[in-house]
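Worked example (supplementary).
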Amino acid sequence: MRRLALAIAVALAAFGTATAGAMDGPMDHGMSEPAHEDGVAIQFAAYAPGRIDVVAGDTVRWTNNSVRVHTVNAVDGSWSSPRIVGTDSFSHEFDTPGATPYYCVLHPFMRGEVDVHNVLLTAPAEPGAPGRPYTLRGRSALAAGQSVAIEADTGAGFQPAGTATVESDGSFAADVTPTATATYRAVAGADASPGVQLLVLNRKLSASGSTRGRRVVVNSKVTPAAMGSPVVLQLKLPLHFGWWPVARAKLDHSSKARFALKLAHRYPARVVLTLADGATVLATSRTLHVGPR
Amino acid sequence: MRRLATIVAAFAGIGAVACATAPAASAQLRQFWVAAVPAPTWNMAPNERDAINGVGLSPSQTVFPTVVYRRYTAHWGHPIANQVSGSSNQDLIPGPLLRARAGDRLYVHFKNLDTLYKRPHSMHFHGVHYKPSSDGAYVPGISGRDGNVKPGQTWTYKLTAGSDSVGVWPYHDHSPSMDDSILGGMYGMLSILGKGQKRPDREFEVVFAPMGDFQTIDGRAFVGNTPVFTSIVGQTIQWDVMAMGSEHHTFHVHGHRWVSPFGTDVDTQTVGPAETFAIRWKEEDPGTWLYHCHVEAHMMAGMIGIYHVRPK
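After joint prediction of all chains, the assembly is encoded as:
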């Protein structure tokens, strides 16, 4: 039993040293977040991006990335920048929902638009899986505690898909369970965010295990390929009350991953494909039994 | 059964006295390399459940990005696990257990590698002797770089463990980012032995602190997620207990008793913010036991764990 504890401890230590990529948005963990600022690059002859969606109260910063001098002027004349020289930048806060077209007075063919919303959904960075929970995140200008409805359109019009509550920093998160690729939007009263697409892929995860003495090797493969995605080896451990992560890896260029560890006893094991958070499961292998009998 | 148990350190809630003392002739210089590093996907509940109450939890509730203390090999060779051998602790939260002995000098080399929030950080130590330049606390216009180590910068804290430093003590971020950092798990402990005192066979770190919507032990919530501490009958075990945040907690271990600082037998002991205590006993009771904060609301919000004692 002592060897078991050691083996698990070693595995857990290895697990802890690896970290996946950043989430697409932080949860509310009671810590302050910086004020939101959106960026637009001013290129030689264009703004990039040419159109940007922001939340009421956001500040947009234009930064000159070209050798030319430019300006940023509202078409309706309500605000304007001075001449933006070199790598200088200009910022403006947008408090009123609606579209604000702007242009460069020195190069009038350069045009852009800031679309200001009361509620915005963040475009999902990773595909989801059918029947698996997926967290959609967004930002809002609404007061904390207000409700935001999440709607999904798979081709037959928008239907309710979930709800979220606005946090004190304006962020919100909603768990949805997609069945197919769909366009999602957030709705608060008469305000609806632009739609974002959540791609849904039905990936399969195969796994096989071998045991020699205390040495255990588990090989896994994901199809369709998900190169670079995180996979986690889990053991079913009674003292952890369920499936417990003991090692993690990223799928290689062949969409495969290999785990090697030492175990003193035999355990149920499985491999799961997750989002970049290392925890939201997209696909699960069959249950193996690994370790000495 | 009644057992012989010893409190090896009194409460350490009062700040350390900032003065330098000469180390004893036999003193060692112990050097540690500790960095503030991102933990982009810290998960408070990897098993996705409050098992006792049968409540499921989703990663959207339990995973968040944070910055933590991470131990490195000498001269920033490579990162290594925070927990000491035989601890049963998990990695990353709390920060590395910094062990020393009364009379030792400690050089704690700190590097700010916070590429996540790009905030300043620091290390402030309780219970040991140091000059103001190793206080690690930010005071506008008064303190130096020690209390405001910017991203990419380093600072070496020079400490001395005096005869009055025996026991366990907190360290934590005391920079301008202190509030956010402590909520995210930037804290750890010093464990200082008296001269001639033996290390226990097992040393468990228990840090009570709120995190997000949960009450956590070492940054984890609910049984199976909080550290599963293990020992074997006959081993000497030591619990290093600390609280961070703004609330008091009551440390309780099922099936065991120890002697309080007041000389009475107890099985529950209160610890307040930045207070610490260490408890030792020779293990005699095999079984699977609970340890938890006995403030009921805290226990129900996650401050509970498993202690497993195997027969010899």
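Two points are worth noting when inspecting this output. The CA atoms of residues 233 and 285 of chain B lie 7 Å apart. The longest strand of chain B covers residues 29-43.
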